[in-house]
Amino acid sequence: MYLLRRIEEYLRRSQTRPARFGRDVLGDPCFVFDLRNGREPRPATAARVAAWLDRHGTAAE
Fold first, then answer.
1. Who contacts 43 (Cβ-Cβ below 8 Å, separation ≥6)?
2. Whole-prediction pTM
3. Any idea what DSSP says for residue 59?
4. Residue 25 CB neighbour total at 10 angstroms
5. Three-class SS of 3-54
6. How far apart are CA 5 and CA 10, in angstroms?
7. Residue pair 10/60 in contact by the 8 Å Cβ criterion
8. Distance (Å, rounded) from C-alpha 56 to C-alpha 1?
9. CA nearest 31: which of 45, 43, 14?
10. Which of 4, 27, 50, 54: CA 20 to 30 A from 13?
11. What's the CA angle centered on 14, arms 49 and 52, to 5 degrees?
């Protein structure tokens, strides 16, 4: 899943914990863990996360 790869890259570069990312972006601390276990987010949720990564994803580089 492309979205999960983007999230994992952001987490690695920013040294952000998965629960913190999920809580900050969606208010769901289990979001990343659920994605890792096969959860498929709704299109609107995926778009919201992708937009957040577009705005903040390069800050850790």
1. none
2. 0.89
3. G
4. 19
5. HHHHHHHHHHHHCCCHHHHHHHHHCCCCHHHHHHCCCCCCHHHHHHHHHHHH
6. 9
7. yes
8. 20
9. 45
10. 27
11. 20
Q: How many other C-beta atoms can be found within 10 angstroms of the C-beta atom of residue 31?
A: 21
Which residues make Cβ contacts (< 8 Å) with residue 61, sequence separation at least 6? 13
8-43 pLDDT per residue, tens: 999 999 999 999 999 999 999 999 999 999 999 999
Structure tokens at 6: 């983007």
The answer to whether the beta carbons of residues 35 and 3 sit under 8 Å apart is: yes
Chain length of the chain: 61
